[in-house]
Design brief:
single chain, alpha+beta, four-stranded mixed sheet, four-stranded antiparallel sheet, 3 helices
Amino acid sequence: MKKSMIFCAVMFAVLFVSCKQEQATQFLSVTDKHNIANDTNWVEVTDIDTVKVCISDKLYKNGISVNSELEYKNLFEETLKDENYLWFVRNHPDKTICTEEYQIPPINFTDRILILYRSPFGGGQPVFKRKIFKHQITSEILFLLETTYFSETLENSFFNDNITIPRFSHSSQIKFDTILRFNY
């Protein structure tokens, strides 16, 4: 009994000492994405380049990150299995859009990460605003898409984003999230 009480006291002391208030905000527990810009641990990423990619949007619905040319090439090979993509390429009047031959993307994967994001939204004449935040301590990345609807109409709307951002760390995690607003 005495040993278990000593063990409990030691464990309590370890937990008490190891839990400090200045610990980093946990990535998956961003409790207020509406006010993340006010959290001093998160900074907005502004070094963003838009790039043209020949990857089927079916492969990156709701967001993926591509960290190497090999990953990109694998996505391209999967794209060639998409009949809709092949029809588009073969019938598009501008033959420089994409081809069925692999083209090296204009991305330096040593310094940058490719983010592919597509999200369909139904109706409402939406206005999209994308922001990307990086946690200063953990280098975690949050891709945040704010969608504001202005009506209840039923037309289809899509948000497509093919961008690169700086590679902050080789172990950076990326989370994709949305904020929906209704202005009608």
